[in-house]
Amino acid sequence: MINHRIRVHPSAAPLPREEQLAWRLAAVATAAPAAPELDPDAAAMAVNRVVDNTAVAVASLARRPVAVARSQALPHRARPGASVFGAPAGARVSPEWAAWANGTAVRELDFHDTFLAADYSHPGDNIPPLLAVAQHAGRSGADLLRGIVAAYEVHVALVKGVCLHEHRVDHVAHLGAAAACGLGAMLRLPTETVYQAVQQAVHTTTATRQSRKGEISSWKAFAPAFAGKAAIEAVDRAMRGEGSPSPIYEGEDGFLAWMLGGPDAEYTVALPEPGEALRGILETYTKEHSAEYQAQAVIDLARRLGPRIGPMERVERIVLHTSHHTHQVIGSGSGDPQKYDPGAARETLDHSVPYVFAVALEDGAWHHERSYAPERARRPETVALWRKVSTVEDPEWTRRYHDPDPGRRAFGGRAVVTLTDGTVIEDELAVADAHPAGARPFGHADYTAKFRTLAEGRVEPREQDRFLETAGRLAGLDAAGLDGLFPAVGTAALAAYDAGLPKGLF
């Protein structure tokens, strides 16, 4: 890897474009190897993530935000166009609108992959825009794989090197750049074109993280879909020869100077050397549970602790000692009273570690729908236990969260449970069971099982088999074969639900 130091450069001392971060990201993408030369483990993991995305998308089709996004997309019919999860067979829409609908479906349940380092991210959000453009542009499965692996490489590098959360910038700013790079790799565009697309994507997808603060709305699911849509539009415009704000990262009035650390700040982004294998995707991990990633180990810890505690009315208080990010983002350190509100929306509850820990303690399990049901959140004994849970930042857990060694990096914490009789029960868990360093690391069989579980009742068993077989042959699919990555679902009920939604402009 090559460490690239980036800082603000005044307009009076212009920075050559080949030394700009946007160019270097684009160069990684345009140098990405063809599918047969991809690192085999990285290519296999890309297939797993396609399966993972499809699983969570299918499970979310009847949820309102997903139905709204689908209803917005379907009027934008196009040929060749791209497919939309849950749409009638043969319906094809313009690729940017397919990315919008499918990206929302993938993100809605907060149940797909994650990468945490200096910042946090969901790199699987790159797949919907890439798949949509691949269908529309007649690209093969091998082309799609090349784009996915390149997008993950860029996304992971940015998340390691540039912290957005510190400045309350939403993490989709890195997604826009990564998706533009993935599209450039898939389409084999010139570095100049991808460079301009990256700059436009970063410029138009930079937003505050209020979308994940306080009363969290459905925009949490729409935000990455918006970034994917914007990346497609940026690539289209750059392919037509248009330039973008430059240098977007290092400019005097650019991203670093005014959105991040300021004119004197420096960041280091490590990118592969020419010819080095792209393996960033192997540092990322998926979720076994439908909740914010920093709650994954907490759920597993609660499942382990529950039998030791016994009847929950014995609990006097519970303190979770954890990292700065967990405490500030989904813990009591956020200062958000909504994290203790029984009437809060699902989007808020899945970002409330006190709620998640309380329910997992009581149930000894976690379910992507039942654990968030309004009647579940309002159960009096649950509310009583929930309000006994708080978090504190522990410097050691913060250090472990940012450990540069992926094998030592930890996203869990230590639970201290004090009972009414004064007994103290303690336990800790560094990473979720499904994490690569966890007790039960997710492998291909686990991705397959997750798909079958979430597709049950929505996709017929024979169609499940067909989809999984098609996904497994991704590297050998021709352009028409990409249609097989959209398993057939019963669309009549979905269409009836969509028809009952309020109308918009389209």
UniProtKB/TrEMBL annotation:
Residues 36-267 form the MmgE/PrpD N-terminal domain. Gene3D superfamilies: 2-methylcitrate dehydratase PrpD (3.30.1330.120). It holds the Pfam family MmgE_PrpD_N. Residues 326-345 are annotated as: Disordered. Residues 289-470 form the MmgE/PrpD C-terminal domain. InterPro entries: MmgE/PrpD_sf, MmgE/PrpD_sf_1, MmgE/PrpD_sf_2, MmgE_PrpD, MmgE_PrpD_C, MmgE_PrpD_N. Belongs to the PrpD family. This is MmgE/PrpD family protein. It comes from Streptomyces hesseae. The lineage of its organism: Bacteria, Bacillati, Actinomycetota, Actinomycetes, Kitasatosporales.
